[in-house]
Amino acid sequence: MKYLLGFAVIAAVLPGFWCACKTIEELDQCAYEISFLANRNIKVPTNDGEVIGMCDNAKKGLKCLADHARECAKGALKSITIKVMNDLENHLHTRCDNPAERAEFLKHVGCFSDSSKADPIRLCADKHMVMMEKVSNFPKPLRLGGACCSSHALRECAINHITNLCSGETGDYFNDMISDIAEENIELVCKEYSSLEKCDAKYDPATWGDLKAIMASEDAAITGQHQYKTIGITSNTLWAALVDLSKIYQVSEETINYLATFSSLGYLIGSLSGIIYKWLNRQFVLICMVSLIALSMTFVPYYGSIYLLFAAITLNGIGGGSWDSSNNIWLVEMWPDKHASVMQSSQFMYGLGTIISPALISPYVSGNSTQMTPSERIKSLSLPFTVVGVIQICVPIILLILFFIRRYRKPGDCDNDEENNIEVINSNHISQFQSLRKFKLILVALLLGTYDAAELGYFYYSPTMLQHLSVEPSEAAHVLSVLSAAYTIGRLVTAFISLKLTPDIIMTYHFVIIIVAQTCLYFGRHNRTIIYITTVLLGYGFSAMWPAILAFTERHFKLSNRIGSLLFFFAGLATIFTPFLIAKYLETWPEVLFVFEGSYLLASIILFISVKLLLIFRP
C-alpha cells in the first residue's frame, strides 16, 4: 500500500525505463493510475473496502509496468528494473493483504480528504513532473543525477508538507513508507546521488540550482498538472480546450474554469433582450448577437490577457442568451400549430452540434503536455476556432440577406396585442385573474430554471463523479458521449411524438424516466452495465424537457418576447450557482451530485404539478 506514495521516487531513478514496447502514453497511464500524489482522480479512501479497491488498481498498474520491464528492458537495466518491481510487488501484497496495515494506512491517509492540506502536498508531485520533463532534455551525463536529485527533492517537499499540515506521526509514517520501499533501490541506482546532501556536493551546481528553484516555487501556475483530461459537457467548442487555454493564458485550471461563470453571467444579460424588441427589430438584433458569438469565439486563443478572455466570453454569453430567448419565440410564431415538433427538431440540430464541435477540436488540443509552448498551442488552436467562427458567421450573413430581400414580419401583425397583454400583466391595477396568470408564469420560469440546473449539472459533473467512483477517466468520457448521443437521438424521436402528444404528457413521462434512471444509477453506480443503461435512459429523459417546457408555456400562456426573456433569465440564474453547490464536494463526496439532482428534480416536479393544478382549478 505504501507504494502508492513511493512510486514517483522509484520511477524517476530508472533511466531508460520509459522506452520500447509500450508507448510513453501507455506507461504514463499505468503509473498515473497508482500515483496517489499526482492523480487527483484517485478518491481518498474512507473505509477498508475502498482501500482494497485502491489496492486492486495499484496491483494492475504495477503489473503493467512490471510486464513492460520483463519484456522490453535489456541487460543491467532489466536486472535492476525487475528487482525494483519485485520488491514493490512483494511490499504491496504485504500491505494490502494485511487488515492491520490497511487500517494504519486509512488512519493516516484521511488527512488528504481536506483539500486545503492535500493540494500543497500534491503540488510537490506536480513540480516534480516539471523537473523530470526538464531532466529528460538534459545531456546524457546529467540525466541520472537530475532524476535522482529531483526525486529526493520530491520526498523532502512531500514529507515536510505532510508533517506540517497533517501531523508529525503521519509524516513519519509516510517517510518510513518511502524508506522501506525505495531506499535500498535508490542506493543501488543513484549511488553518488543517493541523498540531497550528495546532490548539493556533487551534482552540477547551475543545473541543480535550476531544478531546486522549481521545487521551491509555490506558484501552481508554473506546473503542468499531470492529470487526465475529461471534457464535461460537449455543447461548445470552448469547453473542450480549457486545459490548453489555461496554458496559453498561464493561469491555473481553477481560474480558467471561471469562464463558465462569465458565460452564464452574459447569458443572463442576453436573455433580457426580449424587452428591447418594442423599439428594435428582433431580426436585426439577432444578426448582431450571432455575429457577436462567432467573432468572440474565433479569437479565443488570441486575446493575450485572461481578463480580455473573460470579457469576450461574457459577450459570447450575451449573444447566446439573446438567441435562446428569441429564437424559440420566433419558431412559435412561424409554426403556431406545430411549434412543439419544430422546437424539438431545432434542439436535435443543437444536439448534433454538441457532437461535432468536440470532434472538430479534439485533434488540436494538447492538454497537460509540457512539451508545447503557449505560442505553439495558440498556433494549433487557431484553425479549429477559426473554422467554428466561419461556420457560425454564415448564420448572421444569411439572416442579413433575408433582412433586406424578405424581412420577417410577425404573422397576423399582432405585435401590438402582445405588448398590450404585457402592459396589462405589468399594470399596477391588474385584476385577480391577471395577477394569477402572472403568478403561474413565474412558477413556469422557476420550473425551467430548476430543471435546467439539474440537466446541465449532470452533463457538467457526471464525468467527474464517475471518476471518483473508480471509473477510468477515458471511460467516463465515453459514458458522456453515450449520454450526448442518447440526448440527441431522443430529441429527433420526440419531434415526431410531439405531433401526437401534448407537451404536458411528454413532460410527465420524461420526468418519470429521469427519476427512475437516477434512482437505478444511484444504487448501481459501481456496476458498469447499469451505468451505461441508466445513462442511455437519462439522455433520452433529458432530451425532450427543455423544448417541451417551452411548448407547455406556449400552449397555456402564449409565448411573447418578454415572457421568453423571463423564462430564460430564470434558466440562467439557476445554473449560475451550480458550480458553487457541487464542485467543491465532488472529490470527497461524489454522491453529492445525486443529492443535487434529486433536490432540483423534486423542486421541478412540485412546480410542474402546482402549475397543472392551477390550470385545472383556477384556469
TrEMBL record:
<feature type="transmembrane region" description="Helical">
    <location>
        <begin position="284"/>
        <end position="300"/>
    </location>
</feature>
<dbReference type="GO" id="GO:0022857">
    <property type="term" value="F:transmembrane transporter activity"/>
</dbReference>
<feature type="transmembrane region" description="Helical">
    <location>
        <begin position="598"/>
        <end position="617"/>
    </location>
</feature>
<keyword id="KW-0472">Membrane</keyword>
<feature type="transmembrane region" description="Helical">
    <location>
        <begin position="565"/>
        <end position="586"/>
    </location>
</feature>
<feature type="transmembrane region" description="Helical">
    <location>
        <begin position="476"/>
        <end position="499"/>
    </location>
</feature>
<dbReference type="InterPro" id="IPR011701">
    <property type="entry name" value="MFS"/>
</dbReference>
<dbReference type="InterPro" id="IPR036259">
    <property type="entry name" value="MFS_trans_sf"/>
</dbReference>
<feature type="transmembrane region" description="Helical">
    <location>
        <begin position="385"/>
        <end position="405"/>
    </location>
</feature>
<feature type="transmembrane region" description="Helical">
    <location>
        <begin position="506"/>
        <end position="524"/>
    </location>
</feature>
<protein>
    <submittedName>
        <fullName>Major facilitator superfamily domain-containing protein 4B-like</fullName>
    </submittedName>
</protein>
<keyword id="KW-0732">Signal</keyword>
<feature type="transmembrane region" description="Helical">
    <location>
        <begin position="256"/>
        <end position="277"/>
    </location>
</feature>
<feature type="transmembrane region" description="Helical">
    <location>
        <begin position="441"/>
        <end position="461"/>
    </location>
</feature>
<dbReference type="Pfam" id="PF07690">
    <property type="entry name" value="MFS_1"/>
</dbReference>
<feature type="signal peptide">
    <location>
        <begin position="1"/>
        <end position="20"/>
    </location>
</feature>
<keyword id="KW-0812">Transmembrane</keyword>
<feature type="transmembrane region" description="Helical">
    <location>
        <begin position="530"/>
        <end position="553"/>
    </location>
</feature>
<keyword id="KW-1133">Transmembrane helix</keyword>
